[in-house]
Automatic annotation (TrEMBL):
Protein name: Transport permease protein
GO biological process, one term: lipopolysaccharide transport
GO CC terms in record: plasma membrane
Molecular function terms, GO-annotated: ABC-type transporter activity
Entry keyword Transport: yes
Key words of the record: Cell inner membrane, Cell membrane, Membrane, Transmembrane, Transmembrane helix, Transport
Topology versus the membrane: Multi-pass membrane protein
Membrane-spanning segments: 69-87, 93-118, 139-162, 168-193, 272-290
Organism: Nocardioides currus
Length: 305
């Protein structure tokens, strides 16, 4: 008589409440590679963070488009209309908003990553997962909330006659890569440092306030070169966010002007792509070093929390 094997039990994904009730366990494996391997848990963290941001609001996802659109209009009215900062620059509004996209992505990644461990203390003390997952999830959440800003930017650029070119697309990719890697590196370091001393959360918020004024967003890069000369302008470009903003402006803003080659030659540095590649490699090295520092300090994170 042939026996029919019983069907395999269906595995049900645990809810966040069930995960918090698990006993205290150390992480079974650490590192960013382990974070990628456990993508199902990373997706859950990202999804919960996104849903919680607009929970209880009437407009919901509409705020993702309303807030950046209103911010764009305010900045444009202040700098273009009131004080004429963009006088002599074609489509200054695109120049400004392109920089706002990068600054928003970076500040969200940096500030969110800094608070990631402290705000997820209940999960960290219960789950046997790599704790790098929490800063990484905040970087992905920041990227998700940057998508509406990019959509608005693309829409405005298309209305102004922008057509993507291969060099511009490469610049956009490099700009986002620098921002994501550099923001993640700082998020990893500051997240574990914030566990040991909560002042690092305030330090991160203070540092991000300077980003708006330390990148060529509200003013062109040529203004720095004209006011301070070549040596200072070279030091200015050491800032990875300045390089990222220039790259996204090359990808979007220059394509909306009447003479993109002239605009890029006047308002962008000559070695933009070389600097972009070098800065991307440096940001990648920073992520590796940040992860090593994180792994050295994370052993005492549960007791500190």
């Amino acid at each position: 008589m042939t026996t029919i094997p019983s069907p395999a039990p269906i595995r049900r994904r645990s809810t966040p409440e069930e995960l918090e009730a698990l006993p205290l366990l150390p992480p079974s494996a650490t590192g960013l590679a382990e974070v990628v391997r456990r993508r199902y848990l990373l997706k859950m963290l990202v999804r919960n963070a996104i849903q919680s941001r607009y929970q209880g609001t009437a407009l919901g996802w509409m705020w993702s488009y309303l807030q950046p659109a209103i911010r764009f209009c305010l900045f444009y009215f202040l700098f273009q209309v009131m004080i004429g900062r963009g006088a002599g620059m074609e489509n200054f509004a695109v120049h400004l908003f392109a920089g706002m996209v990068m600054v928003h992505f970076f500040t969200e990644t940096f500030n969110g990553g800094t608070m990631a461990l402290v705000q997820n203390r209940s999960l960290i003390t219960k789950l046997a997962v790599p704790r790098e997952m929490f800063p990484v999830s905040r970087m992905l959440v920041a990227a998700w909330h940057t998508v509406p800003m990019v959509a608005i930017l693309v829409f405005v650029c298309v209305l102004l006659g922008w057509t993507p070119d291969p060099a511009g697309l490469v610049a956009i990719v490099l700009g986002f890569a620098i921002t994501a890697l550099f923001g993640l590196a700082l998020g990893l370091v500051f997240s574990v440092a914030n566990v040991y001393m909560r002042d690092f959360g305030k330090v991160a918020q203070t540092l991000t306030q300077f980003v708006n004024f330390s990148v060529p967003m509200m003013y062109p890069y040529t203004l720095v070169h004209e006011r301070f000369g070549e040596p200072i302008a070279s030091y200015y470009l050491v800032n990875p966010m300045a390089e990222a903003v220039l790259l996204i402006q090359r990808g979007f803003w220059t394509g909306t002007t009447s003479d993109p080659a002239y605009t890029a030659g006047i308002h962008l540095p000559e070695d933009l792509y070389t600097r972009g590649l070098v800065m991307t490699l440096i940001a990648l090295v920073c992520v590796v070093l940040a992860q090593r520092l994180f792994s050295r300090l994370e052993a005492r994170v549960p007791e500190r929390l």
